[in-house]
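Something for you to look into today, if you have time. Could you write out one complete protein record for me, on any chain you like? The space below this message is yours for that.
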Amino acid sequence: MRIVIEGAGEVGSHLAKMLSTEANEITVIDADETRLAKLSSTADVVTLNGGASSITTLKEAGVEKADLFIAVNPFTSQDVNVVSALLAKKLGCPKVCARVDDEEYLSYENKYLFTEMGIDMMFYPEKIAAGEIVDLLKRTASTESMDFARGRLQMAVFKLEEDSPLLDMKLTEFTAAVSSEQVQFRVVAVSRGAETLMPRPDMRFKYHDLVFIITKREGLEPIMTFLGKSNIEVGKMMILGASQIGGMVAKMMSKQMETIKVIDLDRQRCLELSEKTDDNVIVVHGDGRNSDLLIEENIKDYDAFVAVTGNDEANILACVVARKFGVPRTIAQVENLEYVKLAEDMGVDAVINKKLVTAGRIFKMTLSNKVRFVKYMNGTDAEVLEYIVAPGSMITKHPLRELTFPQNAIIGGVIRGKDSFIAVGDTQIEAYDRVAVFALPSAVKEVDKFFK
């Protein structure tokens, strides 16, 4: 697949590295030669120095022969991304998408307008990240979660601490201890250190494992009870950083919480946010990295602490401090992927990465039109995909145990009409089923073939 990416910022560079490993031909355009040099030293891509919306540059990059154009430049007005995507479409590229930073563009009517103009998808990384944080605040027992078909199937990720009953238990023992007619679930992966393991019956769970479990809605609570986990009712939240993400989280959650306190060093940002939020959102000008200020602002009284400044180290350390003050739920924005595991090891409950939450939306466009969405989960390099099964596709030909499904992928569950069930060897997939798949990157293209 030929892909042209306009913009070598954080998100663009991450997409370029990720997509180049999938045997794609990647060309990256940017006006800054330093950013291009940095990217070309770490990824197998072609770089092109040029203006974001220059027709000459777009032609030189070969957009008329490209399969996908991604306008993701964060350093210019986001309108330029829209213009670049429209030009790429007019020059002959069949699929184009653009990064935006204006919520107005994403309203239903306006999305339809841009679709009519020729843009296949628009995405707002900060808004996607804010939505992920809101979901994590609603499900505090797991480090990450996601729903299929409005929650009829659910995936949750649990970190095994030193008091976990799963430690040294075999997978078969865990399944036997919890499974029943009412509680159906499947462990689809275990992340251990830097490695993602596909489950085996004799696998033993270890300290600090991240366990990925897919279950029917009614099965989640019994599993949490067995693991000694419970959701925390978040009534008071403190946010470090009046950034775009911090502001959106405060607005999204203000109707559902008693108090939200936002702390930021930038006085102007504080003033702007205080004017745009409800009365129960208190904005404080100050350095949230200072423990004395946190004590002064009664951090011990809060149920959740969310750190979303532009500094990874500050976010991680602030969450560690909040933990020491007894805050039961901490979430940190961490953009350096090498720091994600570090943050988890230091006790941060959940990590949000803007690049990862955006990448799944883009990667979906490189697969068949039968995949509904793709999500990258923190703590693993694997991907979660939801497919709608095409009539006559390979996946419908035999029961699962008789298919040569890729070894580094596993079907977790199936939604059929109003019913949902966990997939087992005898499961026969049918046309129009919605199927949840967990796969390592090496297996994704092979998995995609089964659903075409």
